[in-house]
Amino acid sequence: MKICLNYFISSIWQKKYKKAKSLNQIGSCYTETIASEWQRIKYEKRQSLYHCGKLSRGLNYYQEVLGGEIKNVQLADDVEMFKGHEGKCLHAKLHLGNSIIHFSDPFGRVEKGDNVKITIEFDSEEEIRKVYQSLVADGQAILELQDTFWGALHANVIDKYGIGWLLNYQK
């Protein structure tokens, strides 16, 4: 099992999840990007955060302070799903040796607790199901455990303490 902090679900994605009830219903325009990202989650350390405002300023600041290399900058400009959010960054990475910090501009109002999530990458379906059941017993499933378009079993849960969890088992 691998654990990492992850920005992955912004307010806009949570709204789409609630409406769609299934990741397969969200749409195909982001499918390839997300699928390729999940295939590449093999990092020793991964931390993520939102930068409210212009991401480029924050990203450049952290690169100056920490060093590293900026990679995989994806803008909302040409993505139909994000029409009206031109100039915002969907995703960017700052590589620091074996660590990666993921950045994103927020696409809605950032609520306390939804700007950082903890992601667990599981090694088995049995393991993810056990943890999912334990977390939702006293918490809330934002997205129920289900098969996804990127070939994983995935869930988005808030535990009884208000901590957000993304659970993923890549089949």
UniProtKB/TrEMBL annotation:
Superkingdom: Bacteria
Domain Glyoxalase/fosfomycin resistance/dioxygenase intervals: 53-165
Residue runs in coiled coils: none
Entries under Pfam families matching the protein: Glyoxalase
Database matches in InterPro entries: Glyas_Bleomycin-R_OHBP_Dase (IPR029068), Glyas_Fos-R_dOase_dom (IPR004360), PhnB-like (IPR028973)
Protein name: Glyoxalase/fosfomycin resistance/dioxygenase domain-containing protein
